[in-house]
Amino acid sequence: MSLDPQKSLQVIEEMILQTRTNFQENGHLYLIWGYSIAVIALLHAAIQWFTDFPYHFMVWWLCIIPGIIYSVMIRKRSSSQNVSSYITKTMKWLWFSVLAFLIFSLVLGAVAFNYRIVYPFIIMIIGFGSLVSGGILSYRPLITGGLIGFSIGVLSAFFSNEIQLILLAFAITSAYTIPGHMLKANPLDHA
Amino acid sequence: MLKKLNPLLHSQLRLAVMSILMQVEHADFNYLLEQTDATSGNLSVQLSKLEENKYITIKKSFKNKKPLTRCAITPTGRSAIEEYVQTLKTYLPNSNQNTL
Fold this sequence. Notes:
- The complex is a heterodimer of chains A (191) and B (100).
- Chain A is mainly α and 191 residues long.
- Helices cover 78% and strands 2% of the residues of chain A.
- Chain A has one domain (11-190).
- Chain B has 100 residues and is of the alpha+beta class.
């Protein structure tokens, strides 16, 4: 089949776009964690505000539920996966690093510092994860959401622990939930 | 005078395969089949041509008792497609070259 240069250009562009469309599946990651963390953060704030329960932070153990759901989804997907992209590999390492940072921040918050000091950094790293992912995928909603999340993190340093939890819910909604819905609905329109 | 476009890449299916493999570590035969909408026979032939010219590597194995054909681009293939795109740009002076 003969090709003219314009057609060659079109073939290359189409293949690049089709490979990128596969990242639509990443929408699940943002939705599962976005909704879960927002709900748990608001629940934590409510327990702190309305009860005298001393172990209010135990509510974060609920993260095990979305963790299990997500692990099952990842396992299912990897068994049917027939392509390994550099972007997927980069994203895996990025989110592994973000998760490690979150866990160590929470441990430091519990043993060495006050949670009020640690939460702004947690919110900032959540924004950072979306910002870098958005940059890698050239996906504007994630970049914008990440920047909003990061800014909320900086702002949260000036508020009480309860307000920080509400700000965390806002940050995760901007950085994960909204871009996650947009990514699932139409991954290329906003790129 | 315009430079000649690499005839091995100047074919719709081979160009599509190379464009995909440029972006991934490796891809299976079925993935390439899905993405290019080609027939199995035609894709096999074109992959063999790319392999003969050392543009790609093809590894055959089994996964869950099913044959698995895994393709990956080689440094030679990568240089060839980069050169192809550079040459293509000289043919398209007024097009949006930033997309490549």
